[in-house]
Specification:
The complex is a heterodimer of chains A (319) and B (254). By secondary structure, chain A is mainly alpha-helical. Chain A has 14 helices and 2 strands; from the N terminus they run αααααααββααααααα. Chain B is globular and about 50 Å long. Classes of the chains: A mainly alpha (319), B alpha/beta (254).
Chain lengths: 319, 254
């Protein structure tokens, strides 16, 4: 091709009648459809906004009054605490279940798979109810040798408070989902990484904590961020256990003053605000774990894939 | 025993129904460079990986400096090594992989220092000084703080060699170290290996680089179908191979 290619001449069109000069330019863009669509969408937004402002039933003064109230704020703090602790429990349980599922011991792996199946399969709302009613199944919870002597025991209703029931229900359910996320992350790390570390004499725990997990983080972090945001909202289910988190705090207020919609809006605004902050935090954490750019296995492939596809200009064509 | 690095007897290994090693007998003296060549699937990489227990043996034994690999004898009975014992043996055996396997989330310096600091519990300062000397030896002094993804394949492999050497191993295993490299980058890696051989390091090199085997190797092994077909002085084996399979293979690669 290199020796047959003739110098492209822009001025004199070749025999095929194509205007080479015109081909050098950029095609004409049509924006008509774009403007029409934008106008329709903007009008729809205007209609929604108009109704928000003019419909008196929104009672915006009531909304903002309660938005900044101490009762909702206390509820928000409980929601945040519940989210943080449940996620912490979920992540720890998730890592343990993921490692168990990847273990060579079939009984261990199978048990972990069963637990994931159980905690993912039953709706979290139902799980919360079970933990709330745990005293109906096990009235007393004891520590001791199985079938042997008992060291001490407590009333289940004293140990499993609504808060504990919420942590158990949310945390274990989350652990099942997190285990799948962690497992996917661990499996995404190229096998050669653990092999190289093994060949250097590194011990199993060091290989996991120093080599495999940090690389798995890149895969684990984004869905974990989503899970955290999802957890923030799922905590509202805990209102069924009469634990006064954000939603239940709002419900307590409107059951007394009947300002149902304004209070639900005030609570929603808090959920949206915290979700936005969490999304921002996720961005910075992802950036931190993206050190080194691309993974070892991929960088290699990418460089190879690049070489043949790089366009060769006529000047550097092989002789 | 003092001048023998590797003694292998009747080493067998299967993956499922596939018998990859069918009884390898081998002695490798200290300070020698042994090159293993052969078609893919001949078991040469598997044998190399058995030496530092990335694969477990199904039969036979391997001694490294007189110490059995993967097993121990206690009260007249044979027991499997535990993880810590296996790891301790690997500390003295460096390995370089076809795919480099540098840790992508660590800089070049961190890659080299990780194992000596964490496994041998050496002071970070001392290890870093040694790492800089090693990087100079492999010609990459200016890449101390680079991440692997920003290096060429040849540079990555030279860092991988420096990383293995930082553990001050007595034996170096090379598993097709230049097979994943673009042709113009092979030379720089072979140069580093040649210098290492000149320094007296005991090396076992699985390779397709016949030229390297001829010039640097003290001993050449040709493997095919899970066994050693022919071995001896590289120049002799390459010039006048005695076995038909060796002849056929050499005719294809040279």
């Amino acid at each position: 091709m290199a020796n047959t290619a003739t110098e492209p001449n822009a001025k004199a069109p070749a025999g095929d009648g194509l205007d080479r000069q015109l081909l050098m330019g950029r095609p004409h863009q049509r924006h008509g459809g774009l403007w029409l669509t934008a106008a329709i969408v903007l009008f729809a937004i205007f209609l929604v906004g108009y109704s928000l402002v003019t419909n008196p039933r929104f009672e915006w003064n009531v909304v903002f009054g309660w938005f900044t109230s101490e009762r909702l704020f206390t509820g928000l703090l409980r929601t945040l605490g519940l989210t943080a602790i449940s996620m912490a429990v979920g992540i720890v349980v998730g890592v343990l279940l993921a490692l168990a599922r990847l273990a060579p011991n079939a009984i261990v792996a199978g048990t972990a798979a069963f637990l994931v199946w159980l905690f993912r399969g039953v709706p979290v709302f139902v799980q919360l109810l079970f933990w709330g009613f745990i005293a109906a199944i096990y009235p007393r919870i004891a520590v001791g040798v199985p079938f042997g002597p008992e060291f001490f025991s407590v009333d289940a209703n004293v140990l499993i408070t609504p808060f504990m029931a919420a942590i158990l229900g949310l945390g274990l359910n989350e652990g099942a989902y997190m285990s799948e996320i962690v497992r996917a992350g661990l499996l995404s790390v190229h096998r050669g990484q653990a092999e190289a570390a093994t060949a250097l004499g590194m011990r199993r725990f060091a290989i996991l904590s120093r080599i495999v997990l940090p690389q798995a983080m890149k895969i684990i972090i984004p869905p974990t961020g989503n899970q955290t945001i999802s957890m923030l909202k799922t905590t509202s289910l805990v209102s069924v256990l009469a634990f006064p988190e954000l939603l239940y705090s709002a419900q307590l207020v409107y059951s007394a003053n009947f300002k149902t919609i304004p209070l639900l809006i005030a609570a929603s605004m808090w959920y949206l605000l915290v979700t936005s902050i969490l999304s921002l935090g996720q961005y910075f954490i992802e950036r931190h774990f993206n050190r080194g750019g691309i993974t070892a296995g991929r960088s290699n492939r990418r460089r190879k894939a690049k070489a043949p596809s790089s366009p060769t200009t006529p000047q550097e064509a092989r002789p | 025993m003092t001048d023998v690095m590797i003694e292998a007897q009747g080493v067998t290994k299967s993956f499922g129904d596939l018998e990859v090693l069918k009884g390898i007998d081998l002695t490798i003296p200290k300070g020698s460079v042994t090159c293993i060549i052969g078609p893919s699937g001949s078991g040469k990489s598997t044998f190399l990986r058995c030496i530092n227990q990335l694969e477990t043996l199904d039969g036979g034994y391997i001694l490294v400096e007189g110490q059995p690999v993967g097993v121990k004898i206690r009260k007249g009975r044979l027991h499997a090594q535990n993880n810590a014992e296996a790891a301790r043996m690997r500390e003295n055996i460096g390995m370089v992989f076809q795919g480099f396997n540098l840790f992508p989330h660590m800089t070049v310096l961190e890659n080299i220092c990780e194992a000596p600091v964490r496994v041998k519990k050496e002071s970070r300062k001392a290890v870093q000084d040694r790492a800089r000397v090693l990087l100079e030896r492999v010609g990459l002094s200016e890449k101390v703080h680079a991440y692997p993804a920003s290096l060429s394949g040849g540079q990555q492999q030279r860092v991988a060699i420096a990383r293995a050497l930082a553990m001050e191993p007595r034996l170096m295993l090379f598993d097709e170290p230049t097979s994943a490299l673009d042709p113009e980058l092979v030379g720089e890696v072979l140069d580093v290996m040649r210098k290492l051989a000149d320094g007296g390091m005991t090396m076992i090199v699985v390779t397709h680089e016949i030229g390297f085997a001829r010039e640097v190797g003290d001993h050449l092994i040709f493997m095919d179908g899970g066994g050693i077909v022919e071995q001896g002085d590289p120049r002799t084996v390459l010039r006048e191979p005695r076995h038909e399979r060796t002849k056929q293979f050499l005719a294809k690669v040279i």
